[in-house]
Amino acid sequence: MSETVCPVPGQPIRQCPGWRRRRRAALGAREGDVQRLFLTHAIALAAAGIAIGLAATAGLSPLISSLLFGVGALDAFTYIAAGVALLGAVVLASYLPARRAARTDPCQALRAE
C-alpha cells in the first residue's frame, strides 16, 4: 500500500481524517484544537449511533417486552443510563488517540507522506 493512499476505501487523500489533522497542525493549530477535532468527531458519531439505537429500540419494544424482567419496555432511566455509559466509553476511547495525535510533530508527519 502506498503512503499516499487513504486507509478509508473510496476516499481521496485530501478527505482522509489523518491528512486533515496533519494539515491543521501544520497550519498552526494548537494541541487543544486538534484534540477538539478528534473528540467532536467521535462524539458526533456516537450520538448518531445512540439516536438510531434509541429509535430502533422504541420501535421494537413490543417484541422485547417479554424478555425484560423488572424493567418496562420503555423505561426512560435505563435508556438514558445506557446512552450516557456509551458516550462515556466513546470519550475515554478517543481521548488517548486524540492526545497522541495532538502531540505529533506536524512537520515530521507531513514529511512521512
Describe the structure.
The structure is a single chain. The protein has helices at residues 17-26, 31-64, 76-103, 106-112. The chain is built from 4 helices and no strands. The radius of gyration is 20 Å and the shape is rod-shaped. It is mainly alpha-helical and 113 residues long. The chain has a domain at 31-104. The chain is 70% helix and 0% strand.
Task: Describe the secondary structure blueprint for this structure.
Blueprint: H1 17-26, H2 31-64, H3 76-103, H4 106-112
Helix pairs in contact: 1-4, 2-3
Which consecutive residue ranges, at least 5 long each, have pLDDT under 50? 1-5
The gross shape turns out to be: rod-shaped
Structural class: mainly alpha
Average pLDDT reading: 76
Q: Give the helix proportion (percent range).
A: 55-70%
Instruction: State the order of secondary-structure elements, H for helix, E for strand.
Output: HHHH
- Determine the N-to-C terminus distance: 12 Å
Q: Round the Cα radius of gyration to an integer and report it.
A: 20 Å
Number of helices: 4
Biggest sheet, open or closed, and with what strands and sense? none
How much of the sequence lies in strands comes to: under 5%
**Total E-strand runs:** 0
